[in-house]
Specification:
heterodimer; A: 242 residues; mainly alpha; Helix Hairpins; Serum Albumin, Chain A, Domain 1; 2 domains; 13 helices; 73% helix; B: 223 residues; alpha/beta; Phosphorylase Kinase, domain 1; Rossmann fold; 7-stranded mixed β-sheet; 5-stranded antiparallel β-sheet; 12 strands; 34% strand; globular
């Protein structure tokens, strides 16, 4: 151990320093995008759960409203503004009870605002880092693809067939292992072009869309010009009008 | 509390269940919220075989690891530093552990482990390119590898060539599903064993189920 000129302690100090520097350098805009989308997804989950609880509680005083408004964000706003219509089935609340319900609504409203802000931030960041991917796939789908690939660089290096199935790993490995039917799409399933397509056409559209996203990611990573609009138009003229 | 052969890993029975421990090199260090046991005035940290493939192999009956007090170990695929921290317990103050991983996220945790244990050294590098970190590693007694990559055998042999002393031990935790998801794990194990036997002497091998699915643990000695 002592045959080297450097002692282990010196080596260790050097390595720790070097590693810390490397970790610092590894932080990139891609990681910001990935963290933003992760947080957005977590917020969405929390908002759903908490609004479900709030609905349960508010239904004691106004079941008609809870039944009528299915949109969570709208519902929270109405509870906050206090402009709900009269209720026959509901019992009136004490002012203490009402305060408690309102407090819950306020915190959910704050979460919704945070989510909206994060989505705007995500779009702004992606507009700088990967404008073509953003134009083609939209911010949430694009961010999820980057997360699944690991970074924009790795997304750019993937085959488009892989891009098509990012987010469908479970189904893909089930297919490889057991010979079940192969998945047709992963995260891109929520893209308007695919949701708007006929059921038989969806696989076809997914393949074409993944192609274009792949091209877009490559152009973005190697700092090319803006071609997202053209790529999107090409797809729309092919599959857009039914 | 009893030592298992001469591995410096200890076992203690709690009813039917066995638990595994290493003698703590830095008392009061508890980096992974592990259970602490006191025995004859010494402190012991518990290692879970579910989290550490080295201990999983021991639990499956492995009798010799080649890691002794004073050994120098090159640990590839250190991750958050769970197993490396126990290896650092085993080798003691006179030994050292070079722990390497490729992902910045986990090395971030690893650095904190290394800072509080004076015989550990962190490296953020790709194990496939030993030439990148050869300046920070000297020849070692043991190479331990736990990397879930398709070419994990190639990486292992490369590093053994570069850093392992003659007569030194190589420990390889092989994940069949990383080599090929669609093939039978047993076939892959046989194939890897054949390849491995060309360059090394195989001392022992253990399948790691039920702790890890489709894993096998090789202990080899350099010719």
């Amino acid at each position: 151990m002592t045959e080297n000129s450097l002692s282990f302690d010196d080596l260790r100090k050097k390595a720790i320093e070097l590693t810390k520097k490397k970790i610092k350098e590894s932080v990139s805009k891609d990681l910001m995008i990935i963290n933003a989308i992760n947080n957005v997804e977590e917020l969405e989950k929390s908002i759903n759960v908490l609004t479900g609880r709030l609905r349960e509680w508010y239904a004691l005083t106004n079941p008609e409203l809870v039944n009528k408004i299915s949109d969570n964000e709208k519902f929270v706003e109405i509870v906050l503004k206090d402009d709900a219509s009269e209720s026959v089935m509901g019992a009136p609340l004490d002012s203490d009870d009402e305060k408690a319900v309102k407090a819950q609504a306020v915190s959910i409203h704050a979460l919704i605002q945070t989510k909206t802000f994060l989505l705007l931030y995500l779009e702004a960041t992606m507009d700088v880092v990967c404008k073509n991917v953003l134009t083609l796939s939209g911010s949430t789908i694009g961010a999820k693809l980057i997360r699944e690939a690991g970074s924009l660089k790795r997304l750019a290096y993937l085959q488009s067939s892989t891009v098509q199935l990012l987010g469908a790993e479970k189904a893909l490995f089930r297919h490889i292992k057991t010979g079940a039917r192969s998945p047709k799409y992963g995260h891109i399933v929520n893209h308007p072009l695919i949701t708007g397509a006929k059921k038989d056409d969806r696989g076809k559209v997914a393949r074409a869309l993944a192609d274009k996203i792949s091209i877009a990611a490559r152009v973005d990573y190697f700092k090319g010009e803006f071609i997202g609009e053209e790529l999107l138009k090409e797809l729309q003229s092919k599959f857009g009008n039914k | 509390m009893e030592q298992i052969n001469k591995t410096r890993i200890f076992e203690k029975r709690f009813g039917k269940k066995k638990s595994y421990f290493t003698k703590s090199l830095y008392p009061n260090y508890r980096g992974f919220s592990e259970r602490i046991e006191r025995f004859k005035g010494e402190e012991y940290r518990e290692v879970m075989p579910e989290r550490s493939k080295l201990v999983a192999a021991i639990a499956k009956g492995l009798s010799q690891t080649g890691i002794r007090e004073g050994s120098s170990v090159l640990y590839l695929g250190a991750s958050h530093g769970y197993t490396p921290s126990f290896v650092s317990d085993i080798v003691g103050e006179s030994g050292c552990v070079f722990s390497l991983d490729f992902a910045p996220r986990v090395v971030r945790d690893l650095v904190f482990v290394c800072e509080s244990r004076k015989n550990m050294l962190p490296l953020l590098d790709d194990a496939f390119h030993p030439e990148n970190y050869k300046d920070l590693v000297f020849d070692v007694d043991v190479v331990y590898q736990d990397i879930a990559q398709r070419n994990q055998l190639e990486i292992f042999l490369k590093n053994c060539d570069a850093f392992l002393k003659h007569g030194g031990f190589g420990l390889l935790a092989l994940k069949a599903r990383s080599v090929d998801v669609s093939r039978k794990p047993g076939d892959i194990f046989n194939e890897v064993e054949k390849e491995l036997a060309k360059k090394m002497i195989i001392v022992d091998k253990r399948k790691l189920d039920p702790f890890e699915k489709d894993h096998i643990f090789f202990v080899v000695k350099k010719k």
